[in-house]
Amino acid sequence: MLRRFYHRVLALAASPRAPLWLAAISFAESSFFPIPPDALLVPMALARPERAWRLAAICTVASVLGGILGYYIGYALFDVLATPLLRAYHYEAAFARFKDTYAEYGLWVILVKGLTPIPYKIVTIASGAASFNFPLFVAASVVTRGARFFMVATLLHFFGEQVRDFIERRLTLVTTLVAAGIVFGFVVLKLI
Length: 192
Prior knowledge:
The chain is an all-alpha fold and 192 residues long.
């Protein structure tokens, strides 16, 4: 069953509408959707390695635009939803400290977390909630998301056939490792 699903995803990745789905998922993942665009980027680049960098560009642009929506969600909705709770529990001072810390270290948070499997929407929404410098947020998002997607695309462009062969021979191992990586990302997120 897993092998059939894998071949179905590869077939879908080669379809003409796949880049639109890739853009939609990249956009949504940066602001509200839980599944990372790698789930579509990798099979698409495996299906057509010569398009890997084009696909990485689509992911980057859509992810940054989705990140802007995430920033807005954190910026606009935080006051409406979270501020009354902060007041009720007398956490205004704690949030002020968070904003100060984020103002000092937020760039590093954006750059580091944008490269990891930790959901990027957490970074985008936190950046908006902390009123982090918006142009700097956008620039850091372009750098970190671009680095991540172009690194994946470059590896798949040059080693796509070997990667495909490895995945096809060890599909269960690969899916187990991917699932473990996602769970690890959420565990790390909970601890931070």
